[in-house]
Design brief:
The complex is a heterodimer of chains A (34) and B (130).
Chain A: H1 2-20, E1 22-31
Chain B: H1 2-6, E1 11-17, E2 22-27, H2 35-44, E3 48-62, E4 68-71, E5 77-80, H3 84-92, E6 97-106, E7 120-127
Parallel strand pairs in B: 5-7
Antiparallel strand pairs in B: 1-2, 3-4, 3-6, 4-5, 6-7
Chain lengths: 34, 130
């Protein structure tokens, strides 16, 4: 029981941490756009 | 350009500045934005990329060969061109999450590559995330 709770907590923390690490935006300078 | 990029997975919205020749691609919350796909979709839309930069949050680390990498997750990381900004930050605040603004691509000569190819980030700005 306690192992399951611990595993769930680790999973939630891992997902939360991963969600915060990301590419937020990409900026492009382009040519040929009309 | 707006339609091609707007269809990509993970894209929340696309802002186009025709006069300045600039395009901004914003990621959906909790989604993964793939620079390679953005580059390819831009090329497929009929325009060529002169410069590509990104804003991201992750970790600056050293890999097993002591090279600098910017890590987004356990499986996603980009090698980083060593410069003063990168070296100072990775030495001063190891293991801390950071916000980076970095260049992924800059056109050289008359080449018009279809794909982004291997990415080496050139850090422009590094700071603690807000």
């Amino acid at each position: 029981m306690s192992k399951n709770i611990f595993a769930s907590a680790v999973l939630v923390l891992t997902m939360w941490s991963a969600a915060l690490a990301a590419i937020d935006r990409i900026d492009l300078r382009v040519e040929g756009m009309t | 350009v707006q339609q091609h990029l707007g269809r990509l997975e993970g894209v929340a919205r696309v802002e186009v500045n025709l006069a300045g020749g600039r395009v901004a691609v914003f990621a959906k919350h909790d989604s993964r934005l793939d620079p390679e796909k953005v580059f390819k979709a831009t090329y497929d839309s009929g325009v060529s990329v002169v410069e590509m930069t990104m804003e991201a949050t992750g970790w600056l680390e050293r890999d097993s060969r002591n090279g600098l990498v910017f890590r987004l997750s356990g499986s996603e990381s980009y090698s980083v061109l060593g410069n003063d900004i990168a070296t100072r930050f990775v030495n001063d605040t190891p293991g801390e999450k950071v916000f980076v603004r970095a260049r992924l691509f800059e056109k050289a000569g008359k080449q018009k590559p279809k794909t982004l190819g291997p990415i080496r980030l050139e850090l422009i700005e590094v700071r603690k995330p807000q």
